[in-house]
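Molecular record:
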Amino acid sequence: MYAITSYLAYRRRRELAVRVALGATPRQVLAHVASNGIAIVSAGLILGSLTAFVARGLIAALLVGASSSSGSSAFSAMAFVVAAIGVTLAVGAALLIGAWRATRLDPIQALRDL
């Protein structure tokens, strides 16, 4: 996610430079870049969670000794929640690092590159 955020910020460096030149604070630039990443991550978490929930029966059939019943610890709702929280924290850190790099953009240099 860091690479995607950095790439998107690089592609939009002229727009971000204009925003900074017109008075946007680093916090506003950070929020703007991070919000785009948050939308991507949210869609991914929702689709991934739904797919994992639906596919748990197939996974249980492939694993020896696993069951997709609600009593199985491998397929419990808590496992899904913990995995989603872990992914969210890791991706959140990557988003913030990529968005932070966008706040360090030099508007004069970015606008000269036109």
Summary: The chain has one domain: 2-112.
